[in-house]
């Protein structure tokens, strides 16, 4: 039996795509075709993963592709996209529960509408709950580890289990999720009571700061490199004279050197080459080796 036929036994055929251009599913707007692009509902993820493992088909979990660079040659195997079918939110008192594919912007807004404070920092992060938890996403002094209460995961053995905030072990751009290869299904966040108007005002302030400082008008994957210890990637890149540095359609943003942007017509190879050039030139000028914050697939 063909893999597609086996997949259709656990997934509706409308949620199984073949030869799907990943440029349609990444915020860089680049990337070749995925052999299989699957959009399971929350109770189907474990079965899909188990089938792919049984068939020895490599698979990659993505949210909305906001921290991802997929090669021009695409993805051999399957991409499991959680954003499409897994975005439910429920609120009970000061606890908000969200599925892995829920966008952080929507989560923060839902919290604000219920006068719940603690997710203001996340109101402009263009990713999903699952991806944000995997990398302990943060901004403006806030991090996911500060608000997460518990997470329901599929572990590396395919078992569904709950982990608490202590087990989550979030640190700078990593966590138990990332280190163990677990898949987030949903999570509970414990927030504080606040004033709805004040919460909204803070979110608007952060939005204004982002608009002024970040090149939001161009496709990108946000901060391209991790922050080095006691330094800033954007500062090191600027000091290396790389503001505006261009490879093909990819460019180091002149507005914020920590961002690599698709100025128009960039390929994944352009972006990757630029990242490698920046890494080399920053090392030459500062002695510091930058690490990608962007997840690379197919390179």
Query: Uncertain segments of ≥5 residues (pLDDT<50)?
Result: none
Largest sheet: 5 strands, antiparallel
Radius of gyration: 19 Å
Q: Report the portion of residues in β strands.
A: 25-35%
Mean pLDDT: 96
What is the overall shape? globular
Q: What is the gist of this entry?
A:
The protein is an alpha+beta fold and 299 residues long. It is 28% helix and 26% strand.
Word description of this protein:
There is one protein chain. 28% of the residues lie in helices and 26% in strands. By secondary structure, it is α+β, with helices and mostly antiparallel strands. The strands form 6 sheets. A 5-stranded antiparallel β-sheet has the order 6-7-13-11-12. Strand 16 and strand 17 form a beta hairpin. The longest helix has 19 residues. The chain is globular. The mean pLDDT is 96.
Task: Lay out the secondary structure.
Blueprint: H1 3-7, E1 16-21, E2 33-38, H2 45-54, E3 59-62, E4 68-70, E5 75-81, E6 89-92, E7 95-99, H3 104-113, E8 116-117, H4 129-134, E9 138-139, E10 142-143, E11 148-154, E12 160-164, H5 165-168, H6 176-180, E13 183-190, E14 192-193, H7 196-213, E15 220-223, H8 233-239, E16 246-247, E17 250-252, E18 259-262, H9 268-286, E19 295-297
Parallel strand pairs: 2-5, 3-5, 4-19
Antiparallel strand pairs: 1-2, 6-7, 7-13, 8-14, 9-10, 11-12, 11-13, 15-18, 16-17, 17-18
